[in-house]
Amino acid sequence: MNRLAGCSGQVRAKPFALAMAVALAISAMLASPALCETTSRLPDRPLRVVTKVIAPFVLPDTDPPAGFSIDLWAEVARRINVQYQWLVVPTVPELLQAVRTGDADVAVAAISITPEREELLDFSFPYFDSGLQIMIGAAHQGAILASLRSFPWLALGELFAFASVLIFVLANVLMVIEKRQANPSFRKPYWRAVGEGIWGIMLIFSTGEHGDRDTPRVWKRIAVAAMWFLGVLLVAQMTATVTATQTVERLESSIRDVNDLPGKKIASVAGTVAGDELTQRGLPFVAASDLGDAVRMLSHGDVVAVVYDSPTLQYLAATQASGAVQVVGPIFRPQKYGIAVAEGSALRKPINEALLKIYDDGTYERLRAKWFLKQR
């Protein structure tokens, strides 16, 4: 009987102990889900953080990288207590691909959060509001000053040099013709005779005549007509050069927002939100390798506008372009920047928690003031 009672007691004790063990396990999971979900799964090695140059978020020619996004990530990493090392790639597609394939753990730059990218990667909470804007050549103040600055001085200088050589050659030809006719004005020492010839060529260019209307010599009339025709071509070329430049200047100044872009030659960077937006709007653009390449096209007159992320264009215009460019129009295609990690990464939750604390204690505003308010 006692043996049966003992057995019966043991049988009753096992379900109770099992239930207590399950309850304790569930309580532990509920009490610290972050510990089970993130801490135990965080890499025990330095994180590989991939970035790309896009000022002021990541500045060029800095080692180690520097910029707003770099400072923000350093603060996040400090708060989640992880070490990291930098990887730098040249383009946004390469940056995202590095995280997707596992070559990097985190991507930090100025990465726009889009539905297409969200299907392939996970993103942190947004940490910066952005959008697209348009950059054009700067509009100079004052009509006279604007006209002078827009003149193609180099091209006109080349034309003037060519015209000087042409006039000198034609002056010698005219001097020979007049000497053969015993014109007393040309019976002077060489340089004075050439001076008379230059004056005669200028009169031919401007009026189409060279005295001697009644000259019976056909070959002289043909020579004067040929000289006049060369003068007409020269003046026409100078006029066309100036007119073309002024037309480009008017095209630039006519761009005020995205609705003015159709029909204009514009540049952007392929593989970015800006490039995708232009494609969706049916606006062809010259694909630049990076923003610096696009701005060079603008400064050389190969394009009349550049479309790219607003904060980067604003930073460039304020700090590096020396007044040669300006950003125009309102922001279109609003977007938000985030930190990218692989799908299902345990890093997403601690990164978000750190970002919330950075917002809450004023650290974010201090970093933003450091990199953006100093432009003004």
Compact summary:
With 376 residues, the chain is an alpha/beta fold. The chain contains 14 helices and nine strands.
Mind explaining what this structure looks like?
The chain is an alpha/beta fold and about 375 residues long. The protein folds into three domains: about 45-130 and about 335-375, 3-Layer(aba) Sandwich (D-Maltodextrin-Binding Protein, domain 2), CATH 3.40.190; about 135-140 and about 255-335, 3-Layer(aba) Sandwich (D-Maltodextrin-Binding Protein, domain 2), CATH 3.40.190.10; about 145-250, Orthogonal Bundle (Helix Hairpins). The protein has 14 helices and nine strands. The chain has helices at about 1-30, 35, 70-80, 90-100, 115-120, 145-150, 155-180, 190-205, 220-255, 275-280, 290-300, 310-320, 350-360, 365-370, and strands spanning about 45-50, 85-90, 105-110, 120-125, 130-135, 265-270, 285-290, 305-310, 325-340. Strands 1, 2, 3, 4, 5, 6, 7, 8 and 9 form a nine-stranded mixed beta sheet that branches. It is rod-shaped, with a radius of gyration of 37 Å. It holds the Pfam family SBP_bac_3. It comes from Variovorax ginsengisoli. Keywords: Glycoprotein, Ion channel, Ion transport, Membrane, Receptor, Transmembrane, Transmembrane helix, Transport. This is Transporter substrate-binding domain-containing protein.
